[in-house]
Specification:
heterodimer, A: 506 residues, mainly alpha, Sodium/glucose cotransporter, B: 165 residues, 2 domains, two-stranded antiparallel sheet
Chain lengths: 506, 165
């Protein structure tokens, strides 16, 4: 693959990002613009922006990589991410929009009337956000090293710098347009190459039928198909992905850019359609990869398969142009997710530390980019899609129970919430750290064949959601019930505000 | 955005309904200040200053449940209806994907059905779940909006459009 074309593509993407960011800067003047785009973003743009933010390196590169390595269990990740948005829609989209808070810590403080609960939530939101940015920066390092003769850190530092600049300059308003643009870049950057690949492979039979020397039973073996998934690990992972989306810092802040609860729901439906379309295209890449590039099925190499496929199948300049398009789309994925997260995190930090001024928001944005950058530079990339999945497991254990109960259970108290968050976070972090120390491997149920750790313990540690979420939830409920202070006095009033439709619309 | 005008429609038999609307805290159109945790219940705070409030306060102490309680009852029943709807959707969704998963994992014969070069279970795994997710999303959004329309009709019967002003 030649070096020039992908770099030109990335350059064009960065240029467009900065231009749109500057355009956003010109129209974002107030503090409210910085945090929530003043809630004047149109639904389709808003839905594109939410999708652009949600689709990260994990599903752009990592999905095809894991499908190549581990088989169809990779498809559980996007299914879980999409279904996670369904649960967001079912349980929190409308009510959280009506809560009128900017961030998850705002919501928790307003609901529970407790600064302590707010602080604990803020810390967890920061941890989750940072963990989520790290795989994006790893992805950038991976891609830049694959397409150009530069050291990997150039990619991470470059993405961090652009995110930092755009967020600090334009806040939420400019980020909304940047991300909406990036959704369409990402979709195009996968859909166009996939269409070409299918045409090339398809021959007369269409789809993958014409691929030379392709035996379906060998390329798509039963053991690596849906039937091969481990039941406990898959169930636990899906539980985490379903509930984890509710606890992600950058997902909730997006509802505040909808004008009311009803439109927040409608926007969410559009988001689910948009991300589903993208996941189907990305899954197609995974299927094509299994047919065409079995030689890349090695950990560390597999996540670059999406970049390699176009040049393998489409000869000459066409293939190189397609490859450059994919690289641009990958960078759109890194930038879109990272900038959304940094906006959300900077909002939390600046409000907690300095009352939420525009100036403090800018400094917080810088800080919230540097921490994960440092972390990304000193750690080794794992599989991208599983790293992102791990963030969902943590969010689902630590934050989701409190948010769900905060919206639907009037008995929730501040002490219950704090206890639940701490228990969920500590249990989940312990399990995941123990798992990374004891278990190596990849996929839903890592298995390195070593007998040092019993299979059951390995599964329980690698996919802890199935026990950490119930334990965290039980802690919240029990401590709330035992709390002699009881729920805050204005609970009923607050819950009513969450569930009663706005008085005026339009 | 302003709160519903305190006195509008406070005539004759409508008076109780006014309480319903005035204690429904309208979501602040301008956002609350960041960090301002307390959603202010402006309606209640401003109540005593309103003309005609004495009459209503008299009603409250007089025994029969006044319309503020009506409003609270409607609001609670709306919240319960939305929760039931969400739980029903989530439950049926889980059952649906469980059945789909069992179908493709336990029926060995499906492996021999090869469409476009890919065995059917793999195709279902890659593409089959999203239509189910989208379908449930649409059904829920429509049903939740209907619940809210019903609530409006109950809480604001004088306002057929469901629009306050």
């Amino acid at each position: 693959m030649s070096t020039a074309l992908p770099l030109v593509a990335v350059g064009l993407l960065l240029l467009a990002t900065v231009l749109i960011g500057v355009y956003g800067l010109r129209i974002s003047r107030t503090t409210s613009d910085f945090f929530v785009a003043s809630r004047t973003v149109r639904p389709v743009w808003n839905a594109s922006a939410i999708s652009g933010e949600y689709l990260s390196a994990g599903t752009f590169l990592g999905l095809a990589g894991l499908a190549l390595l581990a088989g169809s269990e990779a498809f559980w990740f996007p299914v879980g991410y999409a279904a996670g948005y369904l649960l967001v829609l079912l349980f929190v989209a409308g009510p959280l929009r009506r809560s009128g808070a900017y961030t998850i810590p705002d919501f928790v403080e307003a609901r529970l009337d407790s600064v302590t609960a707010r602080r604990v939530t803020s810390v967890l939101v920061l941890v989750i956000g940072w963990l989520y940015v790290v795989p994006q920066l790893h992805g950038a390092a991976l891609v830049i090293a694959a397409v150009a003769p530069v050291p990997p850190w150039v990619g991470s530092v470059g993405v961090a710098a652009v995110v930092c600049a755009v967020v600090a300059a334009g806040g939420m308003r400019s980020i909304t347009y940047v991300q909406a643009f990036q959704y369409w870049v990402k979709l195009t950057a996968l859909a166009v190459p996939v269409a070409f690949l299918l045409i090339v492979l398809g021959g007369d039979g269409g789809g993958l039928a014409g691929a030379a020397a392709h035996d379906p039973a060998a390329v798509f073996p039963h053991a690596l198909g849906p039937a091969g998934s481990d039941v406990y690990a898959t169930t636990s992972l899906l539980l985490a992905l379903l509930l984890g989306t509710i606890g992600l810092p950058h997902v909730l802040v997006r509802f505040y850019t909808s004008p009311d609860g009803g439109s927040a729901r409608r926007t969410t439906v559009v988001v689910i359609v948009m991300i589903s379309v993208f996941y189907m295209v990305s899954s197609t890449m995974g299927l094509v990869a299994r047919v065409v590039a079995p030689d890349l099925a090695e950990p560390g190499l597999a996540d670059t398969v999406v970049l390699t496929l176009p040049a393998r199948l489409v000869p000459g300049l066409g293939g190189e142009l397609l490859a450059a398009l994919v690289v641009a789309g990958a960078f759109a994925a890194f930038l879109g997710t990272s900038s959304g997260l940094v906006v959300a995190l900077a909002g939390v930090v600046s409000q907690d530390l300095s009352g939420g001024t525009v100036r403090s928001f800018r400094w917080s944005a810088v800080a919230c980019t540097l921490v994960p950058l440092a972390f990304a530079l000193v750690t080794i990339p794992q599989g991208l899609v599983t790293s992102v999945g791990t963030v969902f497991v943590f969010a689902a254990s630590a934050l989701s129970p409190v948010i769900l109960l905060g919206v639907w259970w009037r008995g929730l108290t501040a002490r219950g919430a704090v206890a639940g968050m701490v228990v969920g976070a500590v249990l989940c972090a312990t399990a995941l750290l123990a798992s990374s120390a004891l278990v190596s491997g990849y996929g839903v149920s890592p298995d390195d064949g070593a007998d040092a750790v019993p299979a059951l313990a390995r599964a329980l540690l690698a996919q802890p959601a199935a026990w950490t979420i119930p334990l965290a939830t039980a802690t919240v409920v029990v401590v709330s019930l035992l709390d002699r202070h009881g729920p805050p006095l204005r609970t009923d009033r607050f819950l009513r505000r969450l569930h009663v439709p706005e008085v005026r619309r339009r | 955005m302003s709160l519903p005008a305190a006195g509008d429609g406070a005539t004759g038999g409508r008076a109780p309904r006014v309480r319903v609307r005035s204690t429904d805290p309208a979501p602040p159109g301008g956002a609350p200040a960041p960090g301002d945790g307390a959603p202010s219940d402006r309606a209640e705070r401003t109540d005593p200053e309103r003309p005609g409030d004495l009459r209503r306060r008299g009603r409250r102490t007089a025994g029969p449940p006044d319309a503020a309680d009506d409003g609270a009852v409607y609001a609670r029943s709306l919240a319960r209806a939305q929760l039931r709807l969400a739980l029903a959707c989530a439950g049926t969704f889980l059952v649906a994907i469980l059945l789909l998963t069992l179908l493709v994992t336990t029926t060995r014969a499906l492996d021999d059905v090869v469409l476009l070069g890919v065995p059917l279970p793999w195709l279902v795994h890659a593409y089959g779940y999203y239509p189910v997710i989208v379908a449930f999303a649409v059904v829920f959004a429509v049903a939740a909006a209907r619940n809210e329309r019903r609530f409006r009709a109950l809480a604001e019967p004088d306002d057929p459009a469901g629009d306050d002003e």
